[in-house]
Amino acid sequence: MKPNYRRCISCRKVGLKEEFWRIVRVFSSGQVQLDRGMGRSAYICQNPSCLQAAGKKNRLGRALRVSVPDTVYQTLWERLNQSNSHTKCS
Description:
By secondary structure, the protein is an alpha+beta fold.
């Protein structure tokens, strides 16, 4: 099966789909959520500089064509901190 490639909305890096977080504007409700749902999607690298630039320059909002709530960014920062704490323990 052919691998699925995606592009980060912040740094424009291309990589396998599993390397990125998926943010979705759900088709029926227009709400923004993480990981699951059908609708318009954007992908972002799991690194602090990409997440910071995406928040500062409204890259998620422009990619999804909707206002992205602060709670989405807070959840992504929490995930980033959790993944960093796991890599430091190893």
